[in-house]
Amino acid sequence: MSDYHRHCFILKGSLCEVLSEFLRLCKNFSAPLIAAHDVSQYDELLVPLLKTKQVKTRSFKHTRQELGSNYDAVLVDLTQGVSAGGLAILSGTVRGNGLFAIALPNQDWLKMADQELSRYLPWPYEPEQVYSNFKQYLLEHLKSTSPFQWLEPQQVSSLPELPPLNANAPLTPEQSSAQSCLFAEQAQSYVLIAPRGRGKSTLLGDSLAKLLKAGKRVAITAPNQDAIVSLKARFESLLGSSNAELPFYAPDALVDDSTYWDFLFVDEASMIPLPLLMALNQKANHCLFSTTNYGYEGSGKGFGIRFCRHLASQKTTKSLALQQLVLSQPIRWGENDPLENWINNTLLLAPKEQVEQIVNTSVSVKPPNGTTAKKILTGKNWLENSDLLNDTFQLLVSAHYQTSADNLRWILDDPSVTSFISMTAEQIHSVAIVTEEGHLPEDLSLAVMQGKRRPRGHLVPQSLLAHEGLENAGQYGYWRISRIATEQSQQNTGLASQLLSYIEESANKRCDFLCSSFAATPDVVSFWLKNGYLPVRLGTAKDQASGSYSIMMVKPLTKLATQQAAKWHSGFMEQFSMNLLLQYADLSIELILLILRQYSFHQTEVPHFVKLTQQDSHNIALFVEYHRPFDSIRPTFLKATFNLALQGQLTPTEPSHQLLLEAALGRNTEQTRQSSNLSGKKAMHQSFKKLLSTVHS
C-alpha cells in the first residue's frame, strides 16, 4: 500500500471462518493480536496453531495494557460486544502497512445482545433489554465513511511481509528540532503534547541516552513500566543494554527521593494525579511532561489546560517558565492515515482547537452572541444530530474531565442518561450530562447498606447507604449532574448556573433531589454552593485522577426532600468536624471554611457539639482579656473556632481567618502567619484574641 497507510478489512462469518481469513491475511506478519469480549474460543482454536505461529489474544477489559505496543496485525472481534475504548487503543498499535481487521457476524448484528453493554448500564438494565444506539452509529460509520474493505470468506490473499522495526532510525527533523529546544535548557518546564504514533517515546528515549552520555543526572517516570517499552528500546539501542540501565522510578518514589535531577522526564503524564505532577515538577532543574493531547486514555485527566497554566505561571530564573514541544508528523504510519482519521472522526477523539491553545494562559471571557436556546437530548436523538454530538463531545473533552471514547458509548446507550445543552444559533456553549438514580427497592437498599450488594450505577444513593449508613437514601429519586462543562472563552459568565436552573425546572415533580459528585476543590465547591447544593458526604481517599477528595452534594426539590437534606447535612457537618482531626490533615483550609460556613445559611443555630459551655466562655475570656496560655485552652479554642466558622463569621479567603483554623486544627501556621503580616507567635495570638472576642462577649 502506498503512503505507509494501514490495511483495513471487515471480516464476516463464523468465528472459525474469521480466524482462518485473518491468519491468511497476516501469514507473512509476526505475532498478530486478536481482541474480543471473550477470547476463550479463539484460545481453543489457536492451540494446534501455536507451534507454527505465535498469536496473542487480549480481552477488551485488558486492552489498556496494550498502550505503547506495536503490532503488524490486529483483529478486533465485535461480534459479542463493542469496546469503544478498546477500538481506539488497538487501532493505535498497528504500524504502517500493517493490518487492522474488524470481525462481524453474518446475522443481524444490531439485533444481537452486546455483552460489553453491561459496563455502561445501571441496575436493573441488562444488555438484552437495551437497543444499542452506539452500535447503529458505529455500523453507519463503517458503511459510509470508513477505509474498511468488506470481505467475504475466500476473498483474501496474504499481505506482503513488513521490514523489521529499526530502533536506531535517525530522528526526524521535527524530533530533532524538539530535542534541540530541550537541550537549550531555556525553560523550567517542557510539555511534549502529540497524538499517538508521532514518536514521543523515541524522542524521550533518545534524549535520555544523550543527556546521560553528557554526564547529566536524569530520571524517567511513568504510571507503569509497560507504558515505556519503546522508550526503553530506543534508550538501550543508543547506549547498549549492558552499558547503562534505564533510570526509571515510580512517581511516588521520585517524590520521596532526596535527589535533585538535572532532567526529569514524565511520560504518559495525563495518567498521573495533578498534585503528584506538581510535586514532580519540584524535583529537577528541568522537567519534561509528555502526553497525548487526545485519545485513548481520556483527555483532561489531571493534565491539559489546568496543569499547563500552573507550569506557565510558576516563578523561575530561567528564560521561560514553560516551553511547548509539538510533534505532528506521524512516524508509526503514513501522513493522513485513513484509519487514524476514521477512528478520530467516529469516536470524536480529534480536538477542534489547536494544541497551542493549551498553554495560552490568558483567555478572554465573552458572553455568547445571540439568543440562547436550550436542548434536551437522549440516546436516540443523537443519531439525528451528529453535528451537535461532535460539538458536545469536544466540549466535554476540552473540560477537566476523564472524557474518553467509552463516554461516547455511555451517552448514546445508557437509558438513564439525558444531555442538556445551552447554545446559540452559532455554537454550543454549555453542556450537562444527567443520570437518573435511586428508587431502589427496600431489600436492595438494605443489602447495599450492609455491604452485601453493589448494583451497577446509582452512585449517590449507593454511597449514602454504604458509606454514611443513611437507611432511607435509596428510596428517593435523584438526577445526578455527572458532567458539566462550559466553552473556555465563556466561563464565569453564568452560563453553567443558567443551565443548572433549566435542569431544575425540567426535574420538577420528576425527582426528589438534584445531586453531583466531583473532586473537591475550593473553586468547584463554591460553584455548587452558590447554586444551592448542600454537602452530604466527603470521600475518605483521594481520587487517583484528580488527587483530590470526592465530595457529594444535593439540592432538594420537594418539601420532604428539604427536610431530609437538612438532617443529612447536619449529620455530615458533625462527622466532618470530627474527621478534620482524624483523616483530613491535608484538606485545604479554604475548602474547610467554605464547607463549614455553609451551615449558617441552612440552620438557625449552631450544632450541639460546638455550643460553648459557661466554663468554655470563662476560659476564652481569660485568654482574650488576661494572660491565660494559649496551649491551656486548645480544646475550647477548637470548639470556639468551629462555632465562628459554622455561624459564617470566618471568610474562606481571609488569611487571618485561615490562620485561626490552622492553629485550632494543630497544623503548621508559619506560612499563613507570614502572609497575614504577623511578626511572631505573640502577634498571632493577639489576632486570635481579636477574633475570639465576639464568642465570649
TrEMBL record:
Transmembrane segments: none annotated. SUPFAM superfamilies: Acyl-CoA N-acyltransferases (Nat), P-loop containing nucleoside triphosphate hydrolases. The keyword Translocase does not apply. It holds the Pfam family GNAT_acetyltr_2. Residues 498-557 form the N-acetyltransferase domain. Its main location: cytoplasm. It is an enzyme of class 2 (transferase). Belongs to the TmcA family. HAMAP family: tRNA_acetyltr_TmcA (MF_01886). Catalyzes the formation of N(4)-acetylcytidine (ac(4)C) at the wobble position of tRNA(Met), by using acetyl-CoA as an acetyl donor and ATP (or GTP). This is tRNA(Met) cytidine acetyltransferase TmcA.
